[in-house]
Amino acid sequence: MILVPFSWRSLLLVLFLTFIHSASVEGTCGYSSCPKTKDGYINVHLVPHSHDDVGWLKTVDQYYYGDNNKIQLGAVQYTLDSVVSELQKSPDRRFIYVESAFFWRWWTNQDAEMQGIVTRLVNNGQLEFILGGWVMNDEACSHYNSIIDQMTLGLRFLNDTFGQCARPRVAWQIDPFGHSREQASLFAQMGFDGLFFGRLDYQDKEFRKQNHDMEMIWDGSPNNLGNASWLFTGALYNGYNPPDGYCFDIFCEDDPINDDPKLSGYNLEEKVNNFINIAQEWAEPYDTGHVLMTMGSDFQYMAAHTWYKNLDKLIKYVNRKQISNSSRVNVLYSTPSCYLKEVHRSKRPLSVKKDDFFPYASDPHAFWTGYFSSRPTLKYFVQKANNFLQVCKQLAVGAFNGHPSQEVISKVRDFSEPVGIAQHHDAVSGTAKQHVTDDYSLRLTVGMKSCEKVVDEAFRKLQRTSPSEDQESNEFPRSFSTGLGTTYEFCHLLNISVCTASETMNDFVVSIYNPLARDLHNTYIRIPVSSPLWDVQGQSGLIPSQIVNIPQPVLGIPGRRSKALYELVFPVESLPGLSLSNFQVTRNTTEHVHSLKIKSQLKAIKKGGRIIHSSTSKLAASANLREDFMIKNSNGLAIVFDSLTGMLKSVIKGSVEVPVQQNFYFYLGMAGDNSKFEKRASGAYIFRPNTTESQPSPITERVFSYQVYKGSHVTEVHQVFTEWISQVIRLYDKTDLVEFEWMIGPVPVEDNYGKEIITRYSTGIPTNGVFFTDANGRQLVKRKRDTRATWPYKKHENVSGNYYPVNSRILISSNEDLSQDGLTLAVLNDRSQGGTSMNDGEIELMLHRRLLFDDAFGVGEPLNETAFGTGLVARGKHWLLLAGEGTGVSISKHREVAQNIFMDKMMGFADVSLLESTEYSFMRNAVSTRNPDLSSRNTVVSGLTQVLPANVHLLTLEPVSPTQFLLRLEHFYEKGEDPVSSKPVTISLEDLKKALPSVKSIRETTLGGNQWIQDMNRFDWIPRIQQDDNNHHTKVVDGSIVLNPMEIKTFLVFT
Fold this sequence. Notes:
There is one protein chain. Helix 7 links the parallel strand 4 and strand 5. By secondary structure, this protein is of the alpha+beta class. The protein has a ten-stranded antiparallel sheet with strand order 21-27-28-29-30-41-36-35-32-33. Strands 22, 23, 24, 25, 26, 31, 34, 37 and 38 form a nine-stranded antiparallel sheet that branches. It contains 22 helices and 49 strands. It starts with 11 loop residues before the first helix and ends with a strand.
């Protein structure tokens, strides 16, 4: 158990007493507190629970307090009040709680007496925490970094509050709409003994029931971590609901148990006998003599006595039948962990699952694959919020000498909470009501402002100290707090070319932080500006820059308030890892806007499309359009366009030219009243195109217009497909990537048809129906069209049944084994999307959805997003990487590129004119035009870039107290995918200590940071078919840290 100072506001005395108490009661909680069962009987484990969505139909606050009950009855505070009261009435009663976000809020509102009562209930096992994350995260759209963070936030809160007795042994993902293999791997590394979930494909479920295979060993990392990633996994019989007729909540319609024969409604015998029959039916597919029965559902137990009074009777009278009728059914209050303990004791051999549980279908025409792409702007916001949070956490350690103040830590936490909430399975998934989605966005915005203060202070602190000076001082000139609230401004709308700071300042410093533990080479900076005349200074002097036009469709985005008409582009040879780099940008007052230099950059070198803006004759224009045109860079990458259509035609890299056609298409969303399966509508959850074929409709066969702009750093092709779809295809000079920046919306629905917008990249690469998608941004999972690995799949929906979540990348290859260097095309994205390969050699990604019907799975409104009085506009990026045979590019390069995207560099803007007064003099050297000192500023952890190999990622650097921080190191390559980078690595612990600030000690923990690694003792399971014994987790030995492919190690660092 990790006993660390409680880093949250208040409760210090209570926590101190808790730790003393918990140390003496560990033997009475956890598995040791489980009730006795009866061998030879069907033991029915009744699990009282309430599934409390952290936002869905109501906002987080509304669900907690019980507001807006006309939408849904639900008030978490009353549930916890009522349950705690009822648990005290009988030591046999149990209750499990899951969502730490709600429990934390309730706990902080209790007085010391109530906290003492709750602590006793936790210590004796009556109140048990299951899962323990801040939320029950989505498994399709959440990035692994965010999953780990939100789990850590919850798990450490429970540990800091209650100690070992609150450590969850079981993961509980009962409501997410499909399940990821990476999630299982992460749970195993967090020390969980098992996982239970409620949703799996209806065909899979029936097949498993018939084959008594509802419980299995899930191999979360079969190619890398081996049985260190094994996780017992159980599919619940009835989702997370009670049996029909046995919902005893105050809002349920089922009859209570009437055990008074004098009353006309007497139903005891009927209730008991029916329950015995149900218990036998539920137990049959499990074969262990035990069955887990969930007694609860959404937002129940607000009047917990109605449940417990009836469950007490059910237990009493069903068990009495053992004597009177020789019944072999034994009923008891229990928890998932107690049930798991009995399954483990049975020593039943289990099958081993190596793939995942995507896609999930609940009936023949309801594939839950639409939410992979629903609400694309929210998905982007969540991804960028995580990016900024990682920067904030790193700087809270690295810029404050490893000793941040409690105030800084609190500001970090103020952003960690909403980012954690955003991982909820109805948040990032895009499946909440619109007003709830707006609330998620507001929470992220407010939290981001809190972390902006941390990053601003960190930047200022780093700027104050030159690279040669000692960085011990934590103090700032008092006068700095006067005047402006911050020196640095941050721009979070760069995706629509908006940055108020760079648009309004005439002379400013751009400070760029690289959060990767490796240098970024040959990168390019883009800044929105209102004028085309600028000079850029770097450490070595003037940097040649380029000015490009912002596309006209972007300028016309509804609600876009910006003076920017251009983007300034300049190259950076190297951005040092974990360091701050400075550049000064000054408006050029000597050059004329109509100068040849500027005009040549802003004038298109080629135009075309259905409307040709050219002064040449029609004959000359026609001849010109019959020729393909090519743009290329100095890295040997070239892309060829069809002059007539204005569309991409092929990609050339190395000695290989691959035909690549890219276009936009749409599926009409199925309209329906959901009265039966065949009338299922496409909605927030469900993707159901109104076609039985696999082919969507193309937006156009020829772009409306295109312009080609060529420069020294980037060449761009601006394409307009329709009035609501446009795109920029970019080729930077020193890169292996082709960048596609698409813009969709407002999607027209005036024809009363909802539409699902996709893009396709079509090639001639032979793929035999095989493609690869990432799992939560990490491991790759092999897919095969119209195929399921573990059951005989019967196809009903041709397209949606082949859609999978794509969190960071999707690949196709001429070789089904990516380690064999076949010709490979990878497309990386900037947010979670649904993707597939409906035809060989093709990649398809869904970009936007606007629908007019609800799919009848609870949200109660169509997915028809609007903003500023019209349909929502979404803008985002794809990156195309051609690799493998003949290209000179390693297939594994997608690893590095994906990390560059999700851990993107962070820019801050400071107005030089504000630094002329004496109160800002300490920064003047960094930005003064008289004596420019634009050298990089190191953080106190910049030395990690010299210690960590290139295949090791600094996943987490997070303060947990003024004298402790979490450190996570990740080997981010898979075994066999690269001859060098896929090898295990060894890191000297001594070198690691030297690279970190004033380290006193380092101790390894589980992935969740809530248990010492040496204390982790997970259940072992017996596979039905013997597997290779390849447990690849290695502990820190002989002063060295060994990281195997895909392994993450977590440390608590004491300073």
